[in-house]
């Protein structure tokens, strides 16, 4: 919902979002949310504001590509790739005439596109990212969307999640079994 609020106050994006993205003591999960908001502000802004938001927000996001937190780093990689994919020319013939910064971003985009780990992560998460529409996200249809429920979400590995659920269910069944047998023993003793 914060994305839609910021779209209504585009001039405050830099004032509100930049300090949050530069708060490196913030929990990685919260930073991931702000990276998501920033990337979508860049991606869905009108042409009038796009370059302003790009120059204010992208420099804050780039350092998060080096995070030791897997979820934050992976999510940032996917979102930066989406931004670069949309904003940089895909024709490599322009490479020779690009500035140093543009060439760096072009190479970063190529890395994020072609690296097998990034491609695997992108395959598991892209449905979630592509499904997001800031205008629809504030409507009931956008809030209660189930469009991507069947996709596995890599940032919470399904195998670990399954192990935790199985462990908790097993522990619960064991405790219920002990409680039932204890109840039956007391009932027989009476």
Automatic annotation (TrEMBL):
InterPro entries for this protein: TRM3/TARBP1
Organism superkingdom: Eukaryota
PANTHER family per the UniProt record, alphabetical: METHYLTRANSFERASE TARBP1-RELATED (PTHR12029:SF11), RNA METHYLTRANSFERASE (PTHR12029)
UniProt name for this protein: Uncharacterized protein isoform X2
Lineage, uppermost ranks: Eukaryota, Viridiplantae, Streptophyta, Embryophyta, Tracheophyta
